[in-house]
Task: structure prediction
Amino acid sequence: MRLTDDEKAMLDGAEGPAVAAAMDLLVRYGEALDCERLCDVRNVAGTMTQPSPVKAKLVAEGGWDRAFAVINLDSDEDLEIPQMRVATCQLQQGFSGDAAGIVPYPEQFVRLQDDAEAFYGRKGVTILATCTPYQVGNLPVRGEHVAWMESSAVVYANSVLGARTNCEGTASTGAASLTGKIPCWGNHLTQNRYGTHLVDVRVPVRDFFDWGLLGYFVGELVEEARPVVVGDLAVPELEDLKHFGAAAASSGGVELYHLPGVTPEAPTVQAAFGPRPVPEAVPYGPRERRRTYEALNSQGQHTEVDFVLLGCPHASIEQVRRAAKALDGRRLNSGTQMWIMVPRALKAVADRSGYTEVIERAGARLFTDSCPAMSRAAPPGTKVFATDSAKQAHYLPAILGIEAWFGTLEDCVEAAVTGRWAGELRCD
Amino acid sequence: MRLILHGRTVVPGVAEGEALVSHQTISGWGGIDPATGTIIERRHELCGQSFAGKILVFPGAKGSSGWSGFFQATRLMGTAPLGMLYTVTTTKVALGAVVTRVPTVTDLDRDPVKVINTGDWVRIDADHGIVEVVPAGAE
Result:
């Protein structure tokens, strides 16, 4: 790797041993990528506060400085962690005190995380505590180089905002937070941002549910490549794109897509492919839609539903409003719990708008900071869960060993109220 | 019959052991259990199998950005693979190999997923980018 003078100085310890360790990790990582240089970043989204058994042990041994050194810098040195060099936020984490007594999640982890928030807050980390920082004030601008992790946030930042980030990890974002640097590789380079596949949508995609199905199909199709999607699409809402990208990043590894006429780097189909020829389109029709629906629902057998989960990635305020509307005046089945995950900043808005009250009156709950997959926590005894999120349906069965049903918000509310899954694919 | 492959160093070092070959990409977060080094993704061809103490041969990484953190956790919990060979470079798998700190080679002159079989004996000299494969039952 070719380092600039300021990067060499950091590596040599001019800014202290923690910054040197951060630069060492970036050099090892850059060489692993066969990358020539680093680029400057001023916006980092990573994870430091989330409790784990390994982290608890490290904190017990040497405090948060030790945990950050090992996990966020991949260093075995005894380091004192300095102030963050550039704007850095904490993504989603474990459950917090608001879940105590309801979510089966270790109380010592809640305390450990409180302690972490205090430590990292002092170091200049903004505790957004959500997988959707772009919903609560962290909106990089088009063309800006950033270092984000969380696959659903990365695909949103690249595709919808036109910012430039690879799918970073815990250690690379830790190193970026102390240096303001990240390998200039992959999505940071213009030639790697053009589309690779064309998908022609031949069935109407109009709502949150269908955007998720389409995303799951596209991810399986292109894996880590860059799809350009055209056809019978309504102009999407924020939550549609949030769901589409998260689904595509779960079934495949999509970090960047283009919707010609909608997303910023694709004013036209040709522009989405840049200097390359437009490839032959792969159709997404009723058959592909049904096949995708069946794949997502292949992990469900029993129709008795113990648990319903909404808000993956964390719900928008509009999703919370719609859930409140669907639950208004209804009452959950006695054996079924329903949790809706939201960023804490939007929970405050939901409280203020009266949505939380309507949701809680029905027996459902709004929780912040985390999700069942991140925290490996669902209501005790859960065997079957239902969700409106393709991402959560993809991951949670493996993480918790439970069955999954995927459907619309209405299917999920119906399951929560009756205790039975009756979802089916309509209009195909 | 011994097979020699040449590639690019991702993480230097030397390791040898039995190969565990995955023809499908692997998820880190939500795809493996670091406590046991086991693949847990239900629809995965290796679901239930452990890569601890094996040479993990796979096409690449998919899924969450927790990939590297989960593979780093296998090192911290003593369930890491001995070495890795992969086909497609992404930030997830490159950073994952770096923080797992096991000898790793990629950009091999033949696709390791196609020419290596589970149970083959593999020696990775990642300092020089050389991989030696002895097919199971050959010696």
About this structure: DSSP finds three helices and twelve strands in chain B. The interface with chain A takes residues 8-11, 25, 29-31, 40-43, 60-69, 72-73, 76-77, 88-92, 94-99, 101, 104, 107 of chain B (CB under 8 Å).
